[in-house]
């Protein structure tokens, strides 16, 4: 007896392709949000580091203004410091040409009192959603 390999039919291949398409359609937004959450976590850590640097500078010089050695940010955010003698505000501004430009958390802020905030964030977003704390 001879046995023939028939392989897959066109219908079977189309069903597999449709299933793969559905899985990708469902998972792509979740993956994108996970990547954005990672970038927000990275900049939140960098803002905390910069705040610690400013606190060390303040303990030595009694002012925040004229602090040196601050980071400019990373490939997704620029850090803009607003320094006064007795206060500071660090703002992580989304770069317009990076993948975080349309992020719903907006620009992250950190003050000398430890207040973690957001500028230009979507109305439903909370500090815990964006800062993870």
From TrEMBL:
One GO-annotated biological process of the protein: type IV pilus assembly
Gene3D superfamilies: Glycoprotein, Type 4 Pilin (3.30.700.10)
Pfam families to which the protein is assigned, alphabetical: ComP_DUS, N_methyl
Spans traversing the lipid bilayer: 7-31
PROSITE patterns per record: PROKAR_NTER_METHYL
UniProt superkingdom: Bacteria
InterPro entries reported in the protein's UniProt record: N_methyl_site (IPR012902), PilE-like (IPR031982), Pilin-like (IPR045584)
Coiled coil: none
Keyword vocabulary terms for this entry: Membrane, Transmembrane, Transmembrane helix
This protein's name: Prepilin-type N-terminal cleavage/methylation domain-containing protein
Organism of provenance: Pseudomonas kielensis
